[in-house]
């Protein structure tokens, strides 16, 4: 600001954009006293507040922790994934094991009171009755023989991760009898175990799919945003064309295209590819937008003027700036994938038995009459909803934490 | 000249997540019709908050903790209204806003709605306070636009804010503030967002309008050049209090408070030589959460008196015959004030090279007001 | 503005060609074609077809021609208004999809209207009284609505309606009305069944809308122009409704055009669950059977709807935001 007259503008607050480290004023809660009164030595300015150096990453984590719902959701997701990894151990039974004597068994509720007295957690066993005329199944509880629930029970054998053989289960009933905490399906298979096994597929497919999306999205979006010009224009046209495709028909069509004869693992991979192919455009857009905006930022220009190499600029300045946004976008894309897999498997496209995923489990819920008689078949839906909600909360929390202008 | 608005001992607290902060710690101000009062200070001293408090526009986290804001009737006698007691957003306060007291905001681009025409936004004030036909409203809007020297008002009235230049937008903002002929106009840093050349025009415009319409103006600024150009009276704020006030000539000629002195001194002098470093007040404004005991300025004041300035309540105001006021221990309890203190201590505001603190009159800013 | 629209239309034409090619390829992706699937199905039920029959059918349907020729034939006749004959249903495609598309659009449009009517007031109120009761409830329900896949919602609603009220709510009409001529009674019957798919779609959409309205409005409420309005002496609610709400809704208005195809897309699976005579179930069937003409026509219709929707959105955005309108209207 040049002028003929002296203009002693008193310094306004200064904010430093884009620095790797930021200085943060540490508040002094409660006591409310800063470094107020002067020190007896009395030379030099006194009364300045402490400064601490906190990296943006740590700052983001602290802000995230403040968002209680997101924080709890993160723990919940962690629990889900833990269970998914160790599902063989956590499940009380083998999910493929059929028990004709327990077909459509209702859930055995965990109880704490037997004969009016407190009892360690237990369930009542079920006895099956077949109505000779209607061939309908019904179950009665045997209320005189409580079966206690134990931890670390020996039960049906399984192979952990295809490598380890064991028969130790986290939860089970004394004597190793089968227990149906969430009921049984039409073939007498324990629904709870099936849901736990299903979590492995349902939760992982989202991660793999999103990972593939990420690679595609960052690559293409990055090129588009960084080079700009006609490259950008061309790629954007392409993306627009892809986006004009209605998503669900695209899913349906692609999933229907998976040949019926390929193995289950191949189907899994095809599914992740399909999910990724549809999801990458969203991420590409975000990446491109960020690159375009950041290219023109002053601190990038100043780095260039200072002679920093392009690659270093990208690595040190641009990537950290949008890394947090990318994490947010990725986190928010995962629930979409989970929902997509569930929907497609539900329609008998994509994954199919004997693969277990929540969507596959919900195939049994398609029949309304069956559903009315055996409502517990809908339980996998709750798990889907909770997982998706949890991811949404975490994504929201991350987004709020990453935004430096909040509060 | 009778006071139009008198603010007495205004206290405002701000609830932050980390604690409660005293944003205003007992502000005393008064504005008279036909005069421009400039309120000066660094960022965070509370000048904008005072302005918002007058109109009841404090954010919801802010609470009025004490004090009065008396608005006197402009004509005839009658009791003043204490704005501080009016319910926020109540009818009484709303009838004052825009009609008796109006505000010119700092950033005209952000302060206008981008999806309504400026004619609509200016006219709205009129529609809120007077019952006029649409044609009459339009006529009055054109009239005020002409008064603020917006060229071709018939075309501009239907334009959107983004279609105007910065200077025109600020004129439109002024038009909006004046259309109901208020008694008091608060201008919150009206020129900060503008180019230097436009700044001068706007200030001249304000001055002219005041002479024509006779309202009182409270001008909030951090720019001493602006003060020098248009102000009649000056109030200097620091950490939520007014530390000195006087007429503009006096305050430039003989600033009393060490902070005011420091500000004046920080003005670069033409002809001061190439190798002299700029003077500055040592230290920085304490963060909002720090509490400073005693006088708010004492941590940075080279004249602080140990045992006096650093404890107890902030220094009370002392009034002088020339109408000035200062809140500083150097003038209390029989102390002789500033110049005596200068004689006693050699090293002052740290500016090696500038040497002694100058007590000579400062070169006038734009040659008009000093 | 006109130039802008024309340019977009040209791009749309290109996109349509591109989309048609992709559609064709995807439908033909599974190995074999309609006939091989049909033969396999027949074999499962015990019927066999002789090789001659197959070959003649194949020639008749033109399935022996190379793919590019099939594609060309399809496009050519489509451009002339002939959408072909469905292998599966043995009826002209146009007849089949017309009424179904109609119902689908009706349901989606009603759902969108309902979503707006519900989401706007709640979103505004939640933003103004942030962290109040309404805010928490609205946010919670919104989130659950968004997290639940539409078809699950449909399933659950069907289940609840059946179990607790004994209603059987699938389909669009009770049996008596299905092929009856139009009458007031028929209309009422339609509405009686219609509310379920509309509700399902609406819940899915409302959640997101409330959050968007709330977030947008919160962003606007801190901006200086709101204070300017207050400083003029406006009543608080007036201030909020006239200025920041208007600006908060702007980005949403542009989603109108694009929301309709989105809802239609979502309705596909819902309709399968609810067994409605709309696009969804038909699309699924035709895809699995590789019925080229039927599936192709349906997908193309949906694609056109989506593109038109995007165009409408962009036009609406330019129209309602004077900043864009007065600067050439380019995005």
Structure description:
- The complex is a heterotrimer of chains A (about 400), B (about 375) and C (about 325).
- Chain A has 3 domains: about 25 residues, no CATH class; about 220 residues, MetI-like fold (Orthogonal Bundle); about 70 residues, no CATH class.
- Chain A starts with about 20 loop residues before the first strand and ends in a 5-residue tail after the last helix.
- Chain A is of the alpha+beta class.
- In chain A, strand 7 and strand 8 form a beta hairpin.
- In chain A, strands 3-4-7-8 form a 4-stranded antiparallel beta sheet. A two-stranded antiparallel ribbon of chain A has the order 1-2.
- Chain A contains 12 helices and 8 strands.
- Chain B has about 375 residues and is of the alpha/beta class.
- Chain B has 3 domains: about 160 residues, P-loop containing nucleotide triphosphate hydrolases (Rossmann fold); about 60 residues, no CATH class; about 110 residues, no CATH class.
- In chain B, the strands form 2 sheets. Chain B has an 8-stranded mixed beta sheet, with helices on both faces. In chain B, strands 2-1-4-5 form a 4-stranded antiparallel beta sheet, with helices on one face.
- Chain C has 2 domains: about 70 residues, no CATH class; about 230 residues, MetI-like fold (Orthogonal Bundle), CATH 1.10.3720.10.
- Chain C has 14 helices and no strands.
- Chains in contact: A-B, A-C, B-C.
- The interface between A and C is large, with 39 and 49 residues.
Would you give the CATH topology of the largest domain in chain B?
Answer: Rossmann fold
Largest sheet report of chain B: 8 strands, mixed
Subunit organisation of the chains: heterotrimer
Strand content of chain A: 5-15%
| Principal-axes shape call of chain A | elongated
Broad CATH class of the largest domain in chain B:
Alpha Beta
Could you say which structural class the secondary elements and strand pairing of chain B correspond to? alpha/beta
Strand element count of chain B: 12
């Amino acid at each position: 600001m040049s002028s003929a007259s002296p203009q002693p503008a008193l310094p306004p607050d200064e904010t430093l954009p884009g620095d790797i480290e930021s200085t943060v004023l540490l508040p002094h809660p409660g006591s409310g006293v800063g470094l107020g009164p002067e020190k007896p030595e009395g030379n030099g300015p006194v009364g300045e507040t402490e400064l601490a150096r906190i990296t943006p990453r740590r700052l983001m984590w602290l802000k995230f922790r403040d968002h209680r719902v997101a924080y709890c959701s993160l723990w919940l997701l962690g629990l889900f994934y833990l269970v998914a990894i160790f599902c063989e151990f956590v499940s009380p039974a083998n999910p493929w094991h059929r028990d004709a004597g327990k077909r459509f068994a209702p859930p055995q509720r965990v109880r704490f009171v037997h004969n009016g007295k407190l009892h360690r957690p237990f369930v009542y066993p079920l006895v099956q009755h077949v109505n000779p005329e209607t061939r309908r199944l019904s179950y009665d509880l045997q209320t005189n023989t409580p079966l206690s629930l134990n931890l670390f029970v020996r039960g049906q054998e399984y192979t952990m991760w295809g490598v380890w053989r064991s028969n130790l289960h986290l939860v089970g009933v004394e004597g190793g009898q089968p227990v149906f905490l969430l009921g049984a399906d039409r073939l007498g298979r324990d629904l709870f175990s099936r849901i736990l096994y299903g979590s492995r597929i349902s939760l992982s497919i989202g991660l793999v799919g999103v990972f593939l999306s990420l690679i595609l999205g960052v690559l293409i979006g990055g090129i588009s945003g960084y080079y700009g010009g006609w490259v950008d224009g061309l790629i954007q046209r392409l993306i627009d064309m892809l986006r004009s495709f209605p998503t669900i028909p695209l899913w349906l069509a692609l999933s229907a295209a998976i040949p019926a004869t390929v193995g289950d693992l191949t189907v899994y991979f095809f599914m992740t590819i399909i999910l990724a192919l549809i999801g990458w455009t969203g991420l590409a857009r975000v990446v491109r937008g960020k690159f375009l905006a950041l290219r023109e930022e002053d601190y990038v220009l100043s780095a260039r003027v200072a002679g920093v190499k392009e690659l270093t600029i990208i690595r040190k300045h641009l990537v950290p700036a949008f890394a947090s946004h990318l994490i947010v976008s990725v986190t928010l894309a995962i629930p979409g994938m989970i929902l997509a897999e569930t929907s497609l498997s539900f329609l008998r496209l994509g994954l199919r038995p004997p693969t277990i995923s929540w969507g596959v489990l919900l195939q049994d819920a398609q029949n309304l009459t069956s559903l009315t008689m055996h409502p517990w078949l809908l339980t996998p839906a709750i798990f889907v909803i909770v997982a998706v909600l949890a991811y949404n909360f975490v994504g929201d929390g991350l987004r709020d934490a990453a935004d430096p202008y909040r509060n | 000249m009778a006071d139009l608005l008198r603010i007495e001992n205004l206290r405002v607290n701000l609830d932050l997540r980390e604690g409660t902060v005293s944003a205003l710690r007992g502000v005393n101000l008064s504005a008279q019709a036909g005069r421009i009062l400039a309120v000066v200070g660094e960022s965070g001293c509370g000048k904008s908050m005072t302005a918002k408090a007058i109109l009841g526009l404090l954010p919801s986290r802010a609470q009025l903790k004490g004090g009065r804001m008396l608005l006197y009737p402009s004509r005839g006698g009658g009791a003043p209204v204490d704005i501080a007691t009016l319910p926020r957003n109540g009818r009484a306060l709303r009838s004052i806003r825009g009609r008796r007291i109006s505000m010119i905001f700092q950033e005209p681009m952000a302060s206008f709605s981008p999806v309504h025409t400026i004619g609509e936004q200016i006219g709205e004030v009129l529609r809120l306070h007077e019952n006029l036909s649409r044609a009459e409203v339009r006529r009055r809007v054109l009239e005020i636009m002409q008064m603020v020297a917006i060229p071709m008002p018939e075309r501009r009235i239907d334009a959107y804010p983004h279609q105007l230049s910065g200077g025109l937008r600020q004129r439109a903002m002024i038009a909006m503030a004046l259309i109901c002929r208020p008694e008091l106009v608060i201008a919150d840093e009206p020129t900060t967002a503008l180019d230097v050349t436009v700044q001068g025009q706007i200030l001249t415009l304000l001055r002219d309008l005041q002479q024509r319409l006779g309202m009182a103006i409270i001008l909030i600024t951090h720019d001493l050049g602006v003060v020098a150009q248009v102000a009649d009276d000056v109030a200097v704020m620091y950490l939520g209090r007014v530390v000195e006030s006087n007429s503009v000539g006096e305050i430039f000629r003989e600033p009393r408070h060490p902070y005011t002195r420091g500000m004046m001194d920080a003005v670069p002098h033409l002809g001061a030589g190439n190798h002299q470093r700029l003077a500055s007040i040592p230290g920085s404004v304490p963060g909002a959460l720090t509490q400073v005991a005693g006088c708010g300025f004492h941590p940075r004041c080279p004249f602080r008196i140990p045992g006096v300035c650093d404890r107890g309540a902030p220094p009370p105001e002392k009034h002088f015959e020339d109408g000035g006021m200062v809140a500083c221990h150097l003038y209390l309890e029989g102390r002789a004030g500033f110049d005596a203190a200068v004689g006693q201590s050699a090293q002052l505001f740290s500016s090696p090279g500038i040497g002694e603190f100058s007590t000579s009159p400062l070169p006038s800013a734009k040659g008009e007001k000093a | 503005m006109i130039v802008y629209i024309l340019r977009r239309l040209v791009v749309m034409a290109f996109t349509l060609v591109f989309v048609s090619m992709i559609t064709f390829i995807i439908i033909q992706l599974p190995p074999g074609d309609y006939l091989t699937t049909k033969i396999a199905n027949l074999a499962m039920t015990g019927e066999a077809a002789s090789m001659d029959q197959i070959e003649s059918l194949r020639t008749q349907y033109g399935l022996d021609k190379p793919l590019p020729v099939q594609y060309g034939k399809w496009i050519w006749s489509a451009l002339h208004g002939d959408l072909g004959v469905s292998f599966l249903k043995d009826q002209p495609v146009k007849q089949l999809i017309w009424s179904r598309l109609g119902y689908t659009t009706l349901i989606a449009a009603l759902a969108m209207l309902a979503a707006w009517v519900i989401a706007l007031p709640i979103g505004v109120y939640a933003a103004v009284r942030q962290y109040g009761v309404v805010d928490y409830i609205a946010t919670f329900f919104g989130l659950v609505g968004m997290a639940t896949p539409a078809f699950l919602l449909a399933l659950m609603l069907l289940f609840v309606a059946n179990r607790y009220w004994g209603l059987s709510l699938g389909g669009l009409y009770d049996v008596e009305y299905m092929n009856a001529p139009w009458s007031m009674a028929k209309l009422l019957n339609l509405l009686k069944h219609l509310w379920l798919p509309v509700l399902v779609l609406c819940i899915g959409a409302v959640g997101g809308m409330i959050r968007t309205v709330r977030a947008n409005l919160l962003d606007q409420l801190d901006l200086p122009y709101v204070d300017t309005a207050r400083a003029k002496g406006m009543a608080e609610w007036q201030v909020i409704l006239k200025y920041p709400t208007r600006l908060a809704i702007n980005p949403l208005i542009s989603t109108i055009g694009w929301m309709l195809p989105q809802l239609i897309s979502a309705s596909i699976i819902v309709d399968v669950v609810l067994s409605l005579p709309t696009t969804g179930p038909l699309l699924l069937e035709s895809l699995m059977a590789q019925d080229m003409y039927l599936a192709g026509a349906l997908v193309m219709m949906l694609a056109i709807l989506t593109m038109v929707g995007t165009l409408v959105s962009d036009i609406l955005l330019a129209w309602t935001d004077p900043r864009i309108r007065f600067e050439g209207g380019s995005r």
